[in-house]
Amino acid sequence: MSLLETRSLSIGYSQKSAPPKVLQKDVSLSINPGEIISLMGQNGVGKTTFVKTISGLIPKLGGEVYYQNDQLEHLSANDLARRLSIVLTEKPYSHNISVLELIAIGRHPYSNWMGVLRAQDKEAIDWAINETHINYLADKKLYELSDGQLQKVMIARALAQETDLIILDEPAAHLDLYNKIEVMTLLRNIAQKGKGILISTHDMQISTQLSDKLWLFNFNEPVQQGAPEDLILDGTLEKTLYLQDYGYDMIHGSIHIGMPENGTSVALEGPEDVLFWTTQALRRNGIKISQSAHTTISCSQREWIVRSSESSQHYTSIGELLTYFR
Ligand SMILES: Nc1ncnc2c1ncn2[C@@H]1O[C@H](COP(=O)(O)OP(=O)(O)OP(=O)(O)O)[C@@H](O)[C@H]1O
């Protein structure tokens, strides 16, 4: 049974004295237990609107949303909070509460009418704090946290809620690489235990390395979905994100950011890792890599030899090599 399913869902906003602004229509998608899905698309395409619509925070324009076969409209706020936890990019309303108090809010759907925490609530809170490695922050007030620390705390709050489905809007936006990898690994482990995870993101590493599936939103086009690797190889990802003009590198899943070519071209040879970084540096400086060029660079771990018909020059770093072309 799907944890979440949308059937012919239309999302967007009603407007006074004008037809509704429809951002996406006919969206039929589902998340199964154990899946991590990344929702991607350009700015303004409707990702946050989709997340808010399926969470019942804003009204849909048409179609249906189901949680384990129950229609969203038929679930009470408490029922929904036991099935779905959300980490939005918006900051919490009050910054004057402690990390522990915020995470305890995640237990609200389970605690009694006075909000008293039982042993199992405390266990869930401890588990969430341990999994996100934020023990050292537990007693701090939210206003004392950095953006990245607050982000991990918000993830811990969602984990403490112990729902089968977790939705995260840009979970790594404020995280350094180490913490991002930690959170990605954590999400993978949680998914392996049978939870479903939906991430709205612009982060190519999260979407293509972490996710089982991508949902790609585009303007005035049907939603595309599939394994990231399939959508990369058939060109769908490149097209949906409008990367064609920037030379999307399908082999490394990265973009070439460089100067316009300046008329210089070189042929390169050497070990793969050195070639990769040498290529990046040369392209950034407008130099074209062409195996038929007259100038050749032979790379090794510590030496770059530039050979042309007139000369042969030795360099011991990429930084030095670039001086040859300047
Ligand atoms: N409350 C609102 N009323 C009317 N239009 C809105 C409202 N909120 C957002 N929009 C518009 O809806 C469109 C989609 O916004 P949304 O935030 O869903 O995009 P997004 O895909 O999440 O973008 P981003 O990648 O920039 O976060 C935008 O054009 C935005 O201006």
Automatic annotation (TrEMBL):
PANTHER family: IRON ABC TRANSPORTER, ATP-BINDING PROTEIN, METAL TRANSPORT SYSTEM ATP-BINDING PROTEIN TM_0124-RELATED. GO terms for molecular function: ATP binding. SMART domains: AAA. Keywords: ATP-binding, Nucleotide-binding, Transport. This is ABC transporter ATP-binding protein. It comes from Marinoscillum luteum. The keyword Transport applies. InterPro entries: AAA+_ATPase, ABC_transporter-like_ATP-bd, Metal_Ion_Import_ABC, P-loop_NTPase. Residues 6-244 form the ABC transporter domain. The keyword Nucleotide-binding applies. Pfam families: ABC_tran (PF00005). PROSITE patterns: ABC_TRANSPORTER_2.
